[in-house]
Specification:
This protein has about 60 residues and is an all-alpha fold. The chain has three helices and no strands. It is about 90% helix and about 0% strand.
């Protein structure tokens, strides 16, 4: 228990880094993809090539 008290700051920093990595590599891309899917679907009006074009343009503009 005493070791835990000595290293609480290091543990907190490691947890913060893992949380940030999860956000950046999992949470953020999935929300961007969902948003781009909705946007491309509304622009495409049932056309396959238009959907693919708008979806890829949206992903590129968001940094994916």
């Amino acid at each position: 228990m005493k070791k835990l008290k000595e290293y609480w700051l290091i543990i907190l920093i490691v947890l913060a880094l893992f949380g940030y990595a999860f956000y950046w590599f999992q949470w953020r891309p999935s929300h961007i993809k969902q948003e781009c899917y909705k946007t491309a679907d509304s622009w495409a009006n049932g056309s396959g090539w238009a959907f693919n074009y708008h979806y890829s343009q949206c992903l590129r503009s968001k940094g994916l």
